[in-house]
Amino acid sequence: MEYITAFWVGGLICALAQILMEKTKMLPGRIMVTLVCTGAVLGAVGVYEPFMEFAGAGASVPLLGFGNVLWKGVKEAIDQQGFIGLFMGGFKASAVGISAALVLAYLASFIFEPKMRK
Fold first, then answer.
1. Is the dihedral of CA 12, 17, 21, 23 positive or negative?
2. Residue 112 DSSP SS3
3. What is the number of other CB atoms lying within 10 angstroms of the CB of residue 51?
4. Do the beta carbons of residue 48 and residue 39 sit within 8 Å?
5. Can you give 11-73 as a three-state secondary structure string?
6. What's the pLDDT at 31?
7. pLDDT of residue 45 exceeding 80
8. Which of 19, 62, 86, 90 is most buried, with most CB under 10 Å away?
9. Axis-axis angle for helices 2-23, 28-45 (nearest 10)
């Protein structure tokens, strides 16, 4: 049942993002920033943790989950290091995920033939 819940919640988040792309004049980059910021705000308010416990990977994998990870990292760093943690926390919390994405994308470029856009 956890897989089904994760599937429909993640699908609903993606469907809402697709509706934003189709029905508004927002550019995809702005929609992505909106999703990340929404995840951070929901984490700050305390709503995202219970939502993530309910939905599992359906809530932690999309961009809303990335915003929540950034928020948790910033909050933890501020608690430990004070004001300077405001600038360090997000980088520290998301470094593994971003590094993995970069390395895997680089490896994928060897397997598939990348094409340059003109």
1. positive
2. coil
3. 18
4. yes
5. HHHHHHHHHHHHHCCCCHHHHHHHHHHHHHHHHHHCCHHHHHHHHCHHHHCCHHHHHHHHHHH
6. 92
7. yes
8. 62
9. 130
